[in-house]
Amino acid sequence: MYQRRLQQTKTLVESPQVTPQTPSLSYWLMIGFTLLACVIGLVLYRKHANNNTSDVDYRQLLVDIMCLSLQIWEQKQGQTRIELAEQSKMWKVSIDDGRLRVRTFERYLSEATLPKKPRWRNVLNTAKHVLKDADGENVLVIELIQKKEQLQMFIKSEPDLFK
Question: What is the reported pTM?
């Protein structure tokens, strides 16, 4: 976008109708407005790039926490995601064709299926539930604790995203 605005400015300056040899008020206004548009475009581009990066990091962090929580749960408890969903009381368990399903829970295990507005409180509470019975020496447990703290810090640093 910035490059396009810069090219437009060069095109306007090089156009035969208005030349720097015959500067007029309209020429200077045109240059000023074009430069202003370039600056605004650059600011918006940087803001958009920063927001997307933090959003991607946040979404990936939620997925990582859920996957680690499930992995620790399965190793420590020897139970499935259905038992984790039931015992944590954070996720709805439904019956589909005679078998138990946790569809919402499963959506949080991949960034591609993560909802647009994920329930970050459910993710944090699930991690807390898993950690309350976990062994603090385990490498996965330490990683989960770090990611949980990272998410909590992110939530505190970006309160507008989490209303």
Answer: 0.65
Count of alpha carbons within 13 Å of 26, Cβ hemisphere only? 5
The total of other beta-carbon atoms located within 10 Å of residue 43's CB is 11
- pLDDT per 10-residue tile (average), the chain, 163 residues: 59 54 61 61 54 68 95 90 90 87 90 92 94 84 93 86 68
Angle between helices 25-77 and 2-14 (to 10 degrees): 170
- pLDDT (0 to 100) of residue 53: 46
The DSSP result for 120-162, as a single string, is HHHHHHHHHHHHHTS-TTSHHHHHHHHHHHHHHHHHHH-GGGG
* Alpha-carbon gap, residue 59 to 53, rounded angstroms: 10
Distance (Å, whole) CA 70 – CA 125:
13
